[in-house]
Amino acid sequence: MIKYDLKRFIRTKSALFWAIAFPIFLLTMFHFVIQNSGNDISVDITISPDNKELPIYQSISILNTTLGTPEMEGGIQTATYIDEDNTLHLYEKDARNIIVRGIADGMVQMKAFGQNARNIDFNAQYVKNISPRGKGSYDVFYYALLAMIGVYSAYSILYSLELVLANQSTIGIRTEVSSMKRWKLLISYMLSAFFQNAFAIFIIIAYAVFILNINLFMDSLTSIFLIIILLNAFGICLGLFVRVIGTGNTLLKFLILNGSILLLSFLAGLMEGDMRIIILEKAPILSKLNPLSAVTNALFRLNIIGDDSLILPTTITILVEATVLFTISVIIMRRRQYEHL
User: Fold this and answer.
1) What Cα–Cα distance (Å) separates residue 103 from each residue in 107, 122, 155?
2) CA atoms within 13 A on the CB side of 283
3) 169-223: pLDDT as tens digits
4) Contact 230, 318 (CB under 8 A)
5) Measured distance CA(124)–CA(229) in Å, rounded
6) In angstroms, what CA-CA distances link 59 with 41, 63, 64, 125, 337?
7) What is the separation of C-alpha 158 from the centre of its chain, rounded to a whole number of angstroms?
8) Are 43 and 220 spatial neighbours (Cβ–Cβ below 8 Å)?
9) Fewer CB within 10 Å of terminal CB in the chain, N or C?
10) Three-class SS of residue 47?
């Protein structure tokens, strides 16, 4: 039965698209958007030609300097103007003005102390970026995406169990009255869903590492494999739980499952990176109970700062939640009676 279901998966184009092609599309889209976003900041400013520190301003890499004064033809075309006395004039509200203000104040203070402002290295970077790709604030998107893909096994088990449960399809009715053991079919479909998603994740990670050159996973392969196994198990239990609850059709079950996974992914920071921080600050218990958030936080800390302290708590959380979902699902299946049979 496992072999048959795996063949069915490989031969079904729609299943391959949603399990492999669509996650690869999302990964590629995220990658190129993040690569082109950059962390460089530049500020357009206008400086008086009479400013004695003009050469210093022009040497600062983040400043795009233009010479001019309010009296000159055309006036000031930038949001910031620095006159001959290093006085800052703001014409528009812009958060980047804080950077210019800090530089201008530094000039004034050095002059007040009788020091040469040329002694200040305004291009120095005093914060070291330890992200493996140099864009640490964006890496969370990759881990949140991996966490979401990890529970895709829920979709496979959702559709497979339609062939087992009598209240879901005519094939399920035939299975119910046949000599086949329902628990054997259930285990077969669960193992098939596990192998299908594990195969898909392997291809996706290989694509990320060898095609997109994303070095986010190679330093913690053991933890990645453990997380994949756990997420797969949780996804199977989640899909099983959604399938056995109520008597809705497959489309309704799919919408419920899809909405649940998207909500968990949103809270984990996939659609909005700051959401992960907001949840951690405002509702930390929610971040711990959400398996996708827990995995995202654990992998982020492990790969960025080398802290594996969240791996064990995350493992325990996922195992407990998967066990609870599976137990409830089995109880519902055992208690359900079909009078028409």
Assistant:
1) 6, 8, 55
2) 10
3) 555 555 555 555 667 777 888 888 899 999 999 899 889 888 888 776 656 678 8
4) yes
5) 44
6) 15, 8, 10, 15, 80
7) 24
8) no
9) C
10) strand
Domain boundary assignment for the chain:
2-31+133-335, 43-119
Measured between alpha carbons, how far is 150 from 32 in angstroms, rounded to an integer? 22
Tokens of 293: 């958030």
Residue 106 carries which side chain, given as an amino acid letter? Answer: G
Provide the total of helices (H) and of strands (E) in the chain, helices listed first: 15, 4
Contacts of 201 (CB under 8 A, 6+ apart): 146, 149, 150, 228
Looking at this protein, which amino acid is placed at residue 82?
I
CB 214 within 8 A of CB 301: no
Give this prediction's pTM.
Answer: 0.67
Cα–Cα dist 181/86, whole Å: 84
Beta carbons within 10 angstroms of residue 229's beta carbon: 15
The angle subtended at Cα 168 by Cα 193 and Cα 340, nearest 5°, is 140
Amino acid making up residue 109: Q
The CA-based angle 220-225-226, given to 5 degrees, is 100
DSSP class of residue 21? Answer: I
Q: How far apart are CA 156 and CA 210, in angstroms?
A: 27
